[in-house]
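TA notes, week 10

Several of you asked for a full example with nothing omitted. So below is the full record: structure tokens for the whole chain, then the designed sequence directly under it. When grading your own attempts, check the secondary structure regions first.
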């Protein structure tokens, strides 16, 4: 009985310490599906991904709260018919739950990416 009570108390403590899904920006956003955008924000500040057509590489840093500032981001410049390459215009971002909102240099939201499922 004491073991069960201790286990229940431990699980309660772990769930109380959980951030409720408000994980930071680190990780994979978007999907690997062909023609779809994806960003990988590494713990060390490196950025890689695709706008659905072109490869992206660069850097990022976390700002106040759940904000993201994308540093210099380079891109290949291929043309892919029928692919919306909106992600190449990224400047900043904001994490809300499992959604990364992407803004351009003027502060206009240009799109969103869902957090990829953990493997």
């Amino acid at each position: 009985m004491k073991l069960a009570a201790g286990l229940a108390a431990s699980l309660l403590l772990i769930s109380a310490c959980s951030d409720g899904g408000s994980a930071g920006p680190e990780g994979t956003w978007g999907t690997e599906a062909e023609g779809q955008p994806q960003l990988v924000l590494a713990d060390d500040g490196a950025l890689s991904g695709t706008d659905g057509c072109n490869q992206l590489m660069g850097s990022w840093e976390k700002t106040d709260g759940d904000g993201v500032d994308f540093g210099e981001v380079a891109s290949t410049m291929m043309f892919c018919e029928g692919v919306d390459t909106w992600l190449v215009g990224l400047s900043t971002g904001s994490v809300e739950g499992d959604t990364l909102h992407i803004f351009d240099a003027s502060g206009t939201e240009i799109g969103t990416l869902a957090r990829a499922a953990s493997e």
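The helical segments are 2-17. Use that as a sanity check on your answer.
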